[in-house]
Amino acid sequence: MKRRALAGLACGIALFILVIANHDMKAVASAFGDAGWTLSGVLLWRVLSICTSGAAWYCLFRREARPSYPFLVFGRWISEAINHLLPVVQVGGDVVRARLAYLWGRRHARPISGPAVAAIQVIDITCALTAQVTLVSIGFLQLWQRGSLSLALSLFGVALTIVPLLLLLMVQRRAVLRGATNLLVKLGLQRFLQSIAAAGDSLADQFRDLYRRPGRLAATFAWHIAGGLLRVGETWSALWIFGHPVSLADAMLIDVMAGAVRSLAFFIPGALGAQESGILLICSVVGVDPSVALALALAKRARDIILGLPGLASWPLAERALLPKPAQPAIK
Q1: CA angle, 232 as apex, 229 and 237 as ends, to 5°?
Q2: Does residue 329 fall inside a structural domain?
Q3: Close Cβ partners of 166 (under 8 Å, ≥ 6 residues apart)
Q4: Can you give the residue range of the structural domain that contains 135?
Q5: Closest CA to 294 of 79, 48, 27
Q6: pLDDT of residue 328
Q7: Fewer CB in a 10 Å sphere around the end CB: N or C, the chain?
Q8: Which residue has the higher pLDDT, 1 or 117?
């Protein structure tokens, strides 16, 4: 594990312990006890969210080289498991799912070029970030309307969330790509590129081709918005089960702002501690009891583990199944 990942993990563990130490864990345990097994039904919201993310990814492939929809949902599941549970700075899972799609194409005689896979991956992330910026902007608008933030601070928050999206869009320009292939190497996408020297122009061509298909981009964006709204449903139903029902507007505020905190804390594996702190902070704005807020945060963390561990276990099995079989020696 790299030093930066270790440092981020140490910060996350310290923050998580600090959050736990400053709250009444008996009250949190009581909230879980009252919820019982009913809380397990909340997992369905995340499963549906993964399915919508798979649909968003599906829209970007050309029909002749498109993996099956169930496989892309499977790849999204593995990707989220890696990003939530491993110290990969929340991008390692995206690299893995791109690799799985590439291998699937080779395995099923639907080959797709490395630059095409890389470009589809970047565009999918771009659409997901655009959807997140849209929802987070609505969240900041809600905070301003409540009087929790001034207009200036709300606009600054929106601008802060737009910065990663602008940087990602900038990297997709041909002139930038020619001098920025090292960034793709750091992201792990070089495994799909036959020649790093020619990667800039190849990727630029793929980006141009995708951006000439606005219908596909709009569909991908719409599916990511749907996924974000499903995650709002998860928060709403969990708080209802915990005996502290909130409006859908409040549930949306909690979820999208916690997601923004998670994105900003990308250097902490799984946003450990940061995600919990963000949920507690936003829940205090909408009047949710701190013990219920922490129960919600821990329920989301438990969800990541329950869905993530089988996903991690499936990853090497998928790689093994998709890799070309070694040629058998001829029998003399």
Answers
A1: 130
A2: no
A3: none
A4: 3-322
A5: 27
A6: 47
A7: C
A8: 117
Assess if residue 59 is contained within a domain. yes
The count of structural domains within the chain is 1
* pLDDT mean across residues, the chain: 84
- Which residue in this structure is represented by tokens 């496989």? 71
Which has the closest alpha carbon to 123: 27, 217, 44, 257?
Answer: 217
Angle at 283 between CA 282 and CA 288, to 5 degrees: 160
Residue 253, in any domain of the structure:
yes
Kindly tell me the sign of the dihedral angle through the C-alpha atoms of 32, 35, 39, 42. Answer: negative
pLDDT at 196 over 70: no
Distance CA 1, CA 273 (A): 20
- The reported pTM is 0.85
Rounded Cα–Cα distance for residues 4 and 12 (Å) = 12
Per-residue pLDDT, 185? 57
More confident position, 173 or 272: 272
- Is 173 a member of any domain? yes
Query: Residue 239 and residue 29: Cα distance in Å, rounded?
Result: 15
Please spell the DSSP secondary structure of 250-263, one letter per residue. Answer: HHHHHHHHHHHHHH
